[in-house]
């Protein structure tokens, strides 16, 4: 602790060792959990660690979970949820698809318009949350249900079907597919380029959170909005920006999905919003805001991807799939909690 | 963070982008130019369709399209409601009964759950036709007839075909946990295949995830030589999973959509078993109309089977043309 | 409580210029039909501490919000350096040099000391999209500013939540001083603290005063106010009970005024009549009020 004496305190810092410093980081628990799960499935199946296997579960971890876990974690650190994040992914992809393949817009123009649309959705979420002071849980639940209806309603209205497809037939598709949907073959495994995007977004997200003013404001807004407001942090703008970042990332993921295969189903994304939140929580984000890590959230998504695919590699009965996932996630969260408590104690 | 950007230049720049890219027909690959026209029968009956299909399900959107088209063709007034929860579906049936329609069409995925509501409709003197699911119970609940496809029969057809092609180790991809008719399909395949068949659970709402899971399964067990999917959308991702896993497994699927028809044409999917959902919706409305106006009952109340209809390389191209309109 | 020692003679730069740093003249604020503050006047000079005393509901928080730019007065005016001023927002008040340390201290417990220190006014380096929070500079300034206040921080990375109440207060005060506050408003900084911690905070108040800042010290405890205050404004139910220079009032008088004088005596007698334990308490209270005059 601090004292009012004038002695220089450097010798007291010395015994806070490297390990302890790692322990207090929010993502530490998730890293340990990821390692345990990796080793566990390694013992269950050799295919799991083969090049093709790794490519497979990294793909599952990156799209949509890993990339979306980044903004969802930032939003959660800022003190809010976005339950509409999953269906927003579908909204973004469907909008691009419909505008291009039905309305004849150039695919690049469609991408720009759908980005504006997504930013508008994020703005509405953020504005309603800051304006009404209602829990974001309720506001975004409304957005979730509303967009779910729009996704299916609008898609059926325009297409007579529940998928938007054939985007792969439009001019300019191939280049965009190369950018977000190509694969790199390493040792026989086809690694989707989305993994690189995931790593890049995680790095950017982490940098923004830890090294910029906006990041500082995010922690502050989630930690204590009143105190933050009192020292001049633009908490409302920060909150709205965080919701808009979430929607912008949903735009990226949704368009990656439709650009990969040329088609996207209208009901995509329902249920995934919870997995984003789970990834963030495993990664050390507090549900109440003000604390957490983007890297941790990405590791959380990695855990989810490894578990989901690992169950198949282990050859377990897939009827029980959800149970395995649930147990794995609970264990990861508990381990995380344990590590954090231990770390907190080491602080005192 | 929210730096103020001069709005006018931004808007102008955007307008330029949008206009420059102005609607070229090369982009609008999905626009239909030959819309099927609808005649007017002028019967003016009031018919309610209440199904268990999810609103986002491509199969049920075709059933609905069939029913709606029949309503137009017959000149009937048609309503369509659906809910996967038998309790809510019963409430929807009750709501329909209350407006005293001339006929009700019901799908019975959970016969016991909607039994009371169906019987209330029959007791109220409203003719009921069951479609798609609930063939066994249809008669005893007092329905005029049942229009659908027998899941077991369809599954056996798939098993027979796969056996001909030499598949011995097959996975059956189940996209909705706990759906009885999907399990019946897999059981039907098993009955005639004569090899091993393993069920694999995936999530219909996350098809990219389903692709990853199928791919993982194929990597894990290299001896798998056949994949059966139980829905058209899953078939498309299974096709990609087979390619990405470098597997030689043959793919067959239940149900049909444009992608599946195209893949059958291209030889990427061996065949598709279609139960012709459009007919289920269309015929039910037509038959109710004919019953009301002329007391006709097709087949004397015996179940009317709309499938299985095998789509193979030979006939897929013709079907493909129709699938873009949302009727196949 | 009265045993808190604060040496007041050390007060170094008392630049008694003509115009006070802040003058409050006949300020009134009403919310609908409820008059929160009626005709309040006092002054704060640079290098001096003006204490605002009052019980719960006296109008202290309305008073703070008027000064910090949250509310605008209905009548009366504020003068800074003799010039009338009007604050539309808290930011304007802050820019004019009025820094308020609220009871919640405006610190975020989960964040580190240095992040809290610069919260809302982060120093940056780099350009364009690479513009970032200059963490090294922030840490270094935090350490030196805290040391200036006589507080040695072991680890500026420590979350503020792990600090004691007095230490948190010191972070908030050091922060206000660093960001060029000329007038520091402290909202009940000692109320939630034990005797020792309260003493530490009083020391920081004196230190800020000695740096030449004007300080408005809001409290309900005359024992905390008297040793550090140069001027005392007493509030009761939105009205002023008086605005005294230190020479015009003694601690006992201040306490008596605060407690409501006759009312307190009455209470003491009532308590005396009841059972043994409370009787003892009553006698104590009565003696207290007698000695206080």
Sum up the structure in keywords.
heterotrimer; A: 348 residues; mainly alpha; ABC transporter involved in vitamin B12 uptake, BtuC; two-stranded antiparallel ribbon; 15 helices; 72% helix; 3% strand; globular; B: 328 residues; alpha/beta; Rossmann fold; 12 strands
Structure description:
The complex is a heterotrimer of chains A (348), B (328) and C (293). Chain A is mainly alpha-helical and 348 residues long. Chain A is 72% helix and 3% strand. A two-stranded antiparallel sheet of chain A has the order 1-4. The longest helix of chain A has 27 residues. Chain B is an alpha/beta fold and 328 residues long. A six-stranded parallel β-sheet of chain B has the order 2-1-3-4-5-11, with helices on both faces. Chain B has a six-stranded mixed β-sheet with strand order 7-6-8-9-10-12, with helices on both faces. In chain B, β6, α7 and β7 form a beta-alpha-beta unit. Chain B starts with 6 loop residues before the first helix and ends in a 5-residue tail after the last helix. About 2% of the residues of chain B have low confidence. With 293 residues, chain C is of the alpha/beta class. Chain C has a six-stranded mixed β-sheet, with helices on both faces. In chain C, strands 2-1-4-5 form a four-stranded antiparallel β-sheet, with helices on one face. Chain C has a two-stranded antiparallel sheet with strand order 7-8. In chain C, α4 crosses α5, α5 runs parallel beside α6 and α9 packs antiparallel against α10. The radius of gyration of chain C is 21 Å and the shape is globular. About 4% of the residues of chain C have low confidence. Classes of the chains: A mainly alpha (348), B alpha/beta (328), C alpha/beta (293).
